[in-house]
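Entry for adenosine monophosphate complex. Fields follow.
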Amino acid sequence: MNILFIGPPGSGKGTQSKRLQDRFGLVHLSTGDMFREAIARQTPVGMKAKGFMDRGEYVPDSVVIDLIRDRLSAPDCKRGFILDGFPRTEPQAEALDGLLSGMGLKLDAIFQFDIAKQVLVERLSSRRVCRTCNQTVSLDQVKQAIEKCQNSTPNTCDFYQRSDDAPEVVGRRIEVYETQTAPIVGFYSRKPGFLKVDADQNQDTVYGILERALGPV
Ligand code: AMP
């Protein structure tokens, strides 16, 4: 099963990806995570992406498309994947179509995460990520999350604010989404398996909607 999540930053795509990944045994393909890893390892791709990400801009299409082409051809993707954060532009959507048809694959479900802009600003500004297990929580849940953090002991759990979640960058990221990504939603809304989801609900409710739409495993 191959799934596409499309929606603005902070709409819950990453959180739902992690839940569906475990439930359906899928590979979570987050281009944002791939870039953050590349930056941490100081690879050439990471060096190219960093400045764009720090400013809340998109990384050039050619860089993103090369990255996802390599990743999609890895053997683990054969068991199915969730695309989270790709494609974000028209050329990326076209490239994805070409890549999938070249591999004899298709998207089985396309979920649009629909959410009000004001909610996004609040969510992104209070979002914290664990360096150890990569879970995302809001500021008021950090203490509780540290106690429960599964992949580390409470002492090593380390929450931080992503530099692009800083208030001065958040507005630009939402603006870039509206100008460059929102236009491709129309293209996907005409494809089979498309569903618009009200993402301004609690994460369990959203997860229930996705799980029901995907049907029994
Ligand atoms: P995310 O973690 O999905 O919010 O992505 C963080 C940042 O990585 C974005 O703001 C972009 O700078 C970059 N990025 C991730 N995916 C893409 C993409 N498909 N196209 C261009 N830039 C991307």
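NOTE: The pocket of adenosine monophosphate is lined by residues 9, 31-32, 35, 52-53, 56-59, 64, 85-86, 88, 92, 164, 173 (CB under 6 Å).
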